[in-house]
Known about the structure:
This protein is of the alpha+beta class and 273 residues long.
Amino acid sequence: MTKTIKYEYGLVTYIDILGFGELIRSEKNPKKINEIYETLQKEAKFDVETEKMFSQKFVNFSDCCVRTTPFIAKDGKLNKFGILFTEILQIVFIQVSLIHHHNILLRGALTIDKIYHEKNKIFGPALVRAYKLERDLAVFPRIILDSTIFEIYNSTPLLKAWHHNHEEDKDYLRSYIRKGDDGIWFVDYLSGIEKQFDCEIDYIDFLQHHKKTIIDNVQKSKKNEKIIVKYNWLMNYHNSVVMKYDSAYYEQLGVNIEKIMINAKEMPMNYEL
């Protein structure tokens, strides 16, 4: 008997390792590449409990991975546990883990549309849309949200937690997403991860590591203007998050804010008159 193949509507996240091709060319030890690959797979793959609860699926190939969450679970019931917030929170963890362990940055996109995903077979309008968003609109080291998500979120209860009204749910979302200067919303992992640390100084340590990741990576690409522009964007994002608090806040923690901020002089092509 031939199996019925049909699309289902759901939330789809497409994630790509930024600069993976250059990493392959420059890294002589395949063990290092494999460690990065395994970290992405470990962090991006759903845990068994969450996968079962939301009927979620995961697939990865080369430097990319795709996560899908259907609106309707396997039991035929609507997913009611806030699939948008849950997905964004997980993306925060994925981005932070790759930076923390490997100094690797990610780019990607979330969208909503029809998708077929069964084991390692995946295709559909949602995958095409997410790939094009990552390729054409994300541009910088960020994971963006398709405008379709907000249209569906504001007009239906499909993406919010069942026990929240829209305003309550938005209060949670606002801590984890940010609107860029270009009008595109993206996952604000630097702000989102703050609440996940046990103490403030651990968060400061991560910000300092993030700064080092940016400066170290841009120095490797200082002759590539296209890449430098992306890191300049990341510098501005980093500094804007650091400046949420004034210098007095950092001083009480025994930290000089200048040690966390990225100075424009540390970045190629970032000139001042």
